[in-house]
Amino acid sequence: MPQPQDTSTKEAQLFPLRLQKFLARAGVASRRGSEDLMSAGRVTVNGEIANELGRKVDPSSDIVAVDGKVVHLGGQPVYLMLHKPKGVLTTMSDPFSRPTVAQLIPVQEHPGLFPVGRLDQDTTGLLLFTTDGDLAQELLHPRCEKEKVYVARVEGAVSGKDIKALEHGIELEDGRTAPAHAHFLQQSDAQEKRWLQQVGEPREGDSVVVLGIHEGKKHQVKRMLAALGHPVLALFRPRFATLDIGDLSEGSWRYLTEDEIAALGKLTNK
């Protein structure tokens, strides 16, 4: 993880500082995420709730806290991955009290965590969380060209012609998809055999394919396969950008390693 910066020689340049900017610099959340924390009444300055978005603070004298935990400049951003289970929403709160990813990660310890992208409620697999708003923005920008790998169990027998169509791009109602990487799942490969356990053995006449895409169209993988006449029965994401879910069990999370963080930084030129 990157080393903390010495801010002692820079403090004179920090005043006055908008509260949401202070929180973002401290690695609590992105500026937008910090504004959400403020609006929810979870941020205090000198013991008083600070929910005015124009509020400014003096880092050398004001005490800023989120959910009662004091925040300091120079704090390091947090990065972790979750193996999202089926039936869980990729949102930090839900007005209907449905299960959310926030219930599975350490939000009490790191209140500014937010997901980078999303997975559908019925999709399982790797979901990245961070308090680093800049990194998240870079990862979600099209120029980053990150690959997301999905394993899909689908109805019907996928043909070689279907694989080639996926590789060339599929015409959808909102435009043609970019070329994808696609192949039939190889049970002779130990890693792909583990992936099969996540989507389940196909019924007779059905198929399992591995698909790598670089875009982020809504329900893209499901729509691409449905357009070929193969509705998705189960969907699992084992890879996101430079990250691999490995042996992380469903419903569990872990912090990223220093090497994983460095690889993401290299990918986004951070």
What fraction of the residues are assigned to beta strands by DSSP?
15-25%
Q: What form results from the Cα inertia axes?
A: elongated
Largest sheet: 9 strands, mixed
Work out the number of β strands.
Answer: 17
Percent in helix: 10-25%
Low-confidence stretches: 1-14
Instruction: Look at the helices and sheets and give the structural class.
Output: alpha+beta
Distance between the termini: 13 Å
Alpha-carbon Rg, integer: 21 Å
Number of helices: 7
Mean pLDDT: 89
SSE succession: EHHEEEEEEEEHEHEEEHEHEEEH
Tell me about this structure.
The longest helix is centred in the last third of the chain and has 10 residues, at 190-199. Helix 1 (19-25) crosses helix 2. 34% of the residues are buried. The protein has helices spanning 19-25, 31-39, 133-140, 160-168, 190-199, 220-227, 258-267, and strands at 17-18, 43-45, 48-49, 56-57, 64-66, 69-70, 79-84, 114-115, 123-130, 148-154, 171-172, 175-176, 181-184, 207-213, 232-240, 243-244, 253-255. The strands form 4 sheets. Strands 7, 8, 9, 10, 13, 14, 15, 16 and 17 form a 9-stranded mixed sheet that branches. The protein has 270 residues and is of the alpha+beta class.
Topology:
Elements (H helix, E strand, L loop, with lengths): L16 E2 H7 L5 H9 L3 E3 L2 E2 L6 E2 L6 E3 L2 E2 L8 E6 L29 E2 L7 E8 L2 H8 L7 E7 L5 H9 L2 E2 L2 E2 L4 E4 L5 H10 L7 E7 L6 H8 L4 E9 L2 E2 L8 E3 L2 H10 L3
Parallel strand pairs: 9-15
Antiparallel strand pairs: 1-4, 2-3, 2-5, 5-6, 7-9, 7-17, 8-9, 10-14, 10-15, 11-12, 13-14, 15-16
Helix pairs in contact: 1-2
